Amino acid sequence: MESDYQHPLNFSITLGPVDTSSLVDKVEVKLIRFFLDNKLQPGDAIPKELDLSESLGVSRTVIREALLRLRMTGLIESRKKRGAVLANPDLIALLQKTIYPSMMDEHTLRDIFEMRLVMEIGMADLIFQRINPSDMKELQEIVKNEPEKSEKYLFEIDQEVRFHGKLYEITGNNTLKRFQQLLLPVFQYVNESGILKKKIKAKRYVSHQQLVNIIKSGTPEEFREAMRNHLENHFKRLF
Questions:
Q1: Which of 111, 89, 117, 237 is nearest to 175 (CA)?
Q2: Cβ atoms within 10 A of the Cβ of 107, count?
Q3: How far apart are CA 147 and CA 169, in angstroms?
Q4: H/E stretch holding 135
Q5: Closest CA to 213 of 115, 146, 153, 168
Q6: 225, 205 in Cβ contact below 8 A?
Q7: Distance between CA 188 and CA 176 in Å, rounded?
Q8: Domains and CATH numbers, the chain
Q9: Global pTM value
Q10: Rounded-to-integer distance, Cα 158 and Cα 184, Å
Q11: Both ends of the chain: CA-CA distance in Å?
Q12: In the Cβ-directed half-sphere of 128, how many Cα atoms lie within 13 Å?
């Protein structure tokens, strides 16, 4: 006797996902693909709205909205007498528009400080390669008035900004320097929010003065380890 049982259909395979993206979303993706396929470079003009509208078969309103999105992300910009051209996107400026420390939860703040730790440990080679006598003199001036037992003091934003900002400057990497400046409001917020109330339990605390001494007569490997211990102290105050 033949069974009436039928295996249930796997609708995820049979039907597949529904494309819920809007028409503007699709046009935005197509425009980016067009730029890439045609190997456009910053400064190259892009087609006019009317030409794009006719080519893609959509209204100029849709094209205008898609182009507006690309302007907001820094991918295109308007030039006098040239119209829209491909731009060199300023990623730091784009991030700056979305940094609101008071809207970040503890996990996000932790992620940001972890990024800082990774960056400042990773800067060692650049610092040792590019530091000059003038930089060293300025670092020594910055740490000159640092308390002898600075591990007993809470995060001092002015001292942190001056010292660590100088390290970023020494790297000669403008994107790194701007990223550090981007995160300063986060550090300021953390300093003023009351998060830094936990007792300090650092076992191998390293001060700014000790970091400078290592830069002067140590190695990048020693600096990386010292910076790790220096920043770990801040982590313990936070979390």
A1: 89
A2: 9
A3: 24
A4: helix 133-143
A5: 146
A6: no
A7: 19
A8: 11-89 (1.10.10.10), 94-238 (1.20.120.530)
A9: 0.69
A10: 10
A11: 69
A12: 19
Token representation of residue 179: 């990223």
pLDDT digits (tens, 9 = 90+) for 33-92: 999 999 999 999 999 999 999 999 999 999 999 999 999 888 999 888 888 999 988 888
Report in angstroms the alpha-carbon separations of 67 from 13, 82, 122, 192.
Answer: 35, 15, 38, 40
Length of the chain: 239
Which tens digit of pLDDT belongs to each residue from 183-229?
877 777 776 776 656 555 555 678 899 999 999 999 999 999 999 88
User: Position 187: which residue type?
Assistant: F
The one-letter amino acid code at 84 reads A
Enter the tokens of residue 4.
């009436």
What are the structure tokens assigned to 142, written together? Answer: 């910055």
Whole-angstrom Cα distance, residue 187 to residue 104? 12
The letter for the amino acid at 102 is S
